[in-house]
Each structure stands twice: as structure tokens, then as C-alpha cells.
Specification:
- The protein is an all-alpha fold and 144 residues long.
- Helices cover 76% and strands 0% of the residues.
- The relative contact order is 0.16.
Amino acid sequence: MEKAKTPWHFWVVGLLTLAWNAFGANDYTQTQLRNMEYLEGMGYPPEGIAYLDQFPAWAEAGWALGVWGALLGSLLLLFRSRFALWAYAVSILGIAMTTAYEAGADMPAELAEMQPAWFPILLWGLALFQLWYAWSMRRKGVLR
């Protein structure tokens, strides 16, 4: 495959998704470490922390795959690696696992009030966009 010229929007998308995914990775890390200063600063009520503590291992694994897959995907995208597509696919698998758990879990009202109803739509929309964008850049020969 012939090397394609990197379009200007590639760097914009790469850097914006890196920032978005880095925020998610930080949130995951601070939550897993139970950094109370962070959690309280983000407005997590005690009921929300208790809810997080009872996540089953498979839902925790899904959360980790979603966050770290997306962050790795953005880094690989910026390095113009074709493996960005696979990292984003792993991220979507993780998001699906977490979404499946949360759909059946009894989330405390105090925690549910913190997350706007449109947030899962934004999360899924951005994840699917990142996958599509990596696929598109690979198809055009931008990713090696």
C-alpha cells in the first residue's frame, strides 16, 4: 500500500481523542486507587463509592478494556499505526461489557443524578467515531 499524505484533521482528531481518553484513564485510575480527594472533588457521594466497590470482576475488566484500549488507540493513531483500529475495537468491547453490567445494576439515585442522560450516548458516539476514523485512515493508507 502506498504511503498517503497525512490530512490536517488527523492531528486534530488524534490530539483531541488523546485528551478525552487520557481524562477517562485518569478517572479510572483515581477511582481504582480510591483517591478520596479526587472522588469527592468529582462529586461522588458515599453511595456512589459503595456502588463502585461492588462491581464484579468482569465489569471492572470491561471498564479497564474500555479506558486503556481507547487511550492506546489514540496513541497508536498518532504514531500512525494500523493497530489503532484493534485498540479501539477492544475499547468498544470493554464499553459494551460495562454498559451491559450497568443496564442491570441498581445504580444509586445519587450517582445516577451525577451523570447526565446524554453521557452514555456521547461515550458510545465518540468510541464508534474513533473506530470509524481509524478504519478510514487505515483504508486511505495513512496508518501503516
